[in-house]
Here is the input.
Amino acid sequence: MLLVFQRKNDGRLAQRAFTLVELTVVIAITAILAALLLPSLSSAREKSSRAVCKSNLRQTLMALRMYADSSAENLPSSADNMGYYHAIRLSDAVFTNFVGDYLSGVSNVLYCPNVDYSGVPTHDAKGYIIGYSYLANSIITTEKSPDYWVGTTKMNGPGTNELLADANYWSSESVGVNNTSVQMAPHTMTGANIVQTPTATRAAPTTSKSQTLGARGGNIGRADMSVTWKGIQNMGEYQASDRGDAGGNW
Here is the structure.
């Protein structure tokens, strides 16, 4: 005997299917909700990155404290391989010794995690490019005097001495081995903003300052081991090297 089963609800299933108009409305609503939520998610991610940057700076300050304890309160040299000061550079010797002896070999502490350094070579003939401005230095030779930063070479000075800062930095000079200039804003509303310009393609040196790139401010590490957030509107603007046209906010 042949049994034939008929699905009596086939008509009802067809009636419950989405129409093209309904699908279009659902897609439109989803897109609107995504557009509303993405800025909030980006803002939350940026706040988290600021906290990690703050932790990195605190660890670096502790390492500087240990270095000073074993070096008659002197701080590591901020000169590059050529003997010049650049806020975001360290010489090969200082970088390798400081990272190896005082940061347990973990160089990532010297870089803000929300900044993508994949396109910025972190080592060249002048030394290592780090992810923060190292301010422990007195600039002697400057091309833009008196617009320059005078830091400290000792750890036992006033506790308010600023030693480290998020790298709100800009320069028309070449950085790294790619012959590019770099402008950096580590913390905008939605994360970091880095602009690299090949120097060979520029008619004249041009720079975008960190605030122009949307910088909201940065963490500042001081000699008293404190790390605090400083809004860009409360930051000064300083020359960030003793040679060339480099500037920074801290």
